[in-house]
Protein: 5-deoxy-glucuronate isomerase
Amino acid sequence: MYDQSDPRAALASASSARVPTAFATASYARFYETPPQDKAAGLSQWYARGQNFLAAYAVADSGRVFERRDQPDEYVVLLPDADMEAEIEVAGERHVLPGNSLAFIPPGASRITLRRAGRLVRLFTTRAEDLAAQCVNAGQYAQPDPNIPPLRDWPAPPGGLRYRAYSLDVPPEPGRFGRIWRCTTFMINYLDPATEPRDKTKMSPHHHDDFEQGSLVLDGAYTHHLRWPWTPDMTIWKPDEHEYCGAPSLTIIPPPSIHTSRAEEAGQMVDIFCPPRHDFSAKPGWVLNAADYPQVP
Structure:
């Protein structure tokens, strides 16, 4: 249910004939309230996960190295701060990723060296079992969500998987929702920043039938509102949730909860989907790197 000024109002309505018989629980990882899972001189790093993906959020000094030796699939690197810079080594080649950018890193060995101190966000599928085990909420996902199908990658580009980087400095465009990029494993929507609290008369309650959403708050604060559908089985009904999450935090919103988020102040949020969304991909011009990664038929 979108306000008519919201570009998502033009999306095809999703409906499911299947009535859920169980609901997974939403997860709220407020990194500012918990000690980091990795703590060393010049490094604080937190891990939190959903069913299909996990986020590693780090604050680190210049020179800190983040290495993956046997990464099973494509992952995401996000440098949200304009004054950041990182060197990324992949397949014997070195690339410089400036701040205010994201990159997709192919499977196998890779090495990230921060050239300047600041924030680094990496997103992995939960096939990265060593990292999934470190997540603060790992126990919540001991049993899979019955409403989410098994993770399947999207097609690889015709030229194969390789390092690809994109600037986040993309101006808003009428009719386009946020700033969206996809790869074989992820869809990232770097939402237009909130400049003030969201208008309470223009919220956007909606649901997803069969995929989870991660909402990563990088700056500011948001309240996530969730409502669960009533089913014939009253024993699985759940109360509404209204969770205030500052920065940094990761919220996992499971299907088919009705949800919407309100900026409480100026801030930046990133929506994460794993695998990519079909409905966003079907909208011409919404996926900014659609020419690089083919859609699932």
User: Anything to note?
Assistant: The mean pLDDT is 95. Helices lie at 129-132, 278-281. Residues 95 and 131 are 24 Å apart (CA to CA). The first strand starts at residue 27 and ends at 30.
